[in-house]
Amino acid sequence: MAPFCARSYHVPYLVELRGGAVRRIWLRVALAAGAGLASLVVCSGVLVAIVLLFSNTTDVFVIMGSGSGPSPIFWVGLVILIIVAAAGFSLPARALGAKWDHVTNTALLSVLGFCAFVVFLVVSFVAPFVGVPLALMAIVATPLIGSLFAIREDYHYTVGLVRATVIGAVAIYCASLLAIWLARVEEGWSYSLVPVIVASSSWVVMPAIVAALRPD
Question: Please, how many CA atoms are within 13 Å of residue 212, restricted to the half-sphere of its CB?
Fold first, then answer.
């Protein structure tokens, strides 16, 4: 057994070492959450830009089903905006420490989730009882799958990591479904955005959970 003086010498060192590890974890969590928020802002801007691009380059008869289709400018702009969205989706993966090829694969997978959200959003105008829950599910599932996929090759999954991430995603999704009831009770268009805002919080929470519980 080491002398008492040696043991007392190591205690402050261990405390300092433990404090440094905690600070690194919190820094990693803050970086991942900030990257998720930045990705949400970029993709929200892309969604608004797609709507504006469609309304400005598409004839009203196309929307009614009697036109020839959107103009080539719309398709060119759509491709550019999808590339911008993919760049935004790569931010959380980079913050989680994914390598370049994993960042690309994660961004492409997240773009598919974003496209699914757009499709379900369009469906919600026709069948809201089906489209709205599916659109909210796509919002929550996109950062969930993207965050876990980003660390798939470089780190090992743990039971606590997967369990906490899935529980967090399910809790946020259920909260967004409850927010639909609030939007129906309260009048005003601003309340209709509450379920989307609640579901969008997963873009910050999911990367933060993965960053906190990710094995080193």
Answer: 14
Please check whether residue 210 is in contact with residue 23, taking contact to mean a CB–CB distance below 8 angstroms: no
Tell me which of 195 and 17 has the higher pLDDT. Answer: 195
Nearest residue to 113 via CA among 81, 143, 90, 84: 143
Other residues' Cβ atoms within 10 Å of the Cβ of residue 99:
13
CA distances from 13 to 2, 21, 106, 114 (A): 15, 12, 39, 47
Nearest to 96 by CA among 146, 168, 140: 146
CA distances from 41 to 18, 48, 201, 203, 206 (A): 35, 11, 12, 10, 16
| Model confidence at 6: pLDDT above 50 | no
Burial-class residue 98 by CB neighbours within 10 Å (0-12, 13-18, 19+): buried
Mean pLDDT in residue range 4-8: 48
Q: Return the amino acid letter for 170.
A: V
Give the span between the Cα atoms of 7 and 1, in whole angstroms.
Answer: 9
Give the pLDDT confidence of 49-88 residue by residue, as tens digits. 988 888 887 665 445 555 556 678 888 888 899 899 888 9
d(CA 206, CA 32): 9
Of the chain, the percentage scoring pLDDT greater than 70 comes to: 78
Mean of pLDDT values over 16-36: 79
Residue 69 makes CB contacts below 8 A (sequence gap 6+) with 62
Distance CA 71, CA 32 (A): 39
